[in-house]
Specification:
281 residues; mainly alpha; MetI-like fold; 2 domains; 10 helices
Amino acid sequence: MTTTSSAPTTGAPVRPATVKRSKSRAATWIPPVLVFLGVLAVWYAITYLILDEKRRFLMPPPHEVVAAFFDPATFLEIVQALGRTTMVALVGLAFAIVIGVLWAVAMSQAKWVERSLYPYAVVLQCIPILALVPLIGFWFGFEYPARVIVCIMIALFPMVSNTLFGLQSVDPGQRELFQLQRASRWTVLSKLEFPAALPAIFAGMRISAGLAVVGAIVGDFFFRRGEPGLGSLLSTYTARLRSAELFATIFVAALLGVAIFALFGWIGKRVVGKWYDFSAN
């Protein structure tokens, strides 16, 4: 009696989930890369086809910017300034988060508190920060504390508005259930409102993170005393017409904002990602 056996497979079958995951990653990264290559092409075209040779310093080609960044002296300046600006941005962001959450919690507890305080949050957002910079310098000096205050003022409003929105967006049915159980105001806040508001709070943190970098650079740009940050380098390179170094500093500042934004996105996924699709925001 003879038995027949199927021919052995030469390779493991490809799982559909793996294929879908690979396609998803490709769909995520390919479009930004293509846009980046397009921007480089336009940049080179402007530099070499539109600008004449005498005005080419206004927009140096990308390879000159990269070369300027990796020049040892320039690299050291930018890295040191990056560390100082990062510290100011993180400290200002931390204060903005604490103040914004407490401000929003106070407004969520009573309508009269919200009517009394929320207009001033809007006013703070609408006032041009450049108009307040001289006053901040006169009142708090022109060094580290003034830079942190500018950073707080720019990054504060998204934390206030997003946290308040999250606290007020609780399901009415769940709120009524807590009321039927005669839960205290603190219990409602800590067990219902604040956990439900976490996605909105982390969304506010991501927005404020980028604004904190802007505030740190703006404060450093105007308050030139003390150790220089990225804002001081931008001012120095502009005054000396060092365009390649200026572009390199701008890109480093942009990458700093993206990094802090991505950091809080990652933290948000770890905190609320198990029950909320945080990546959809």
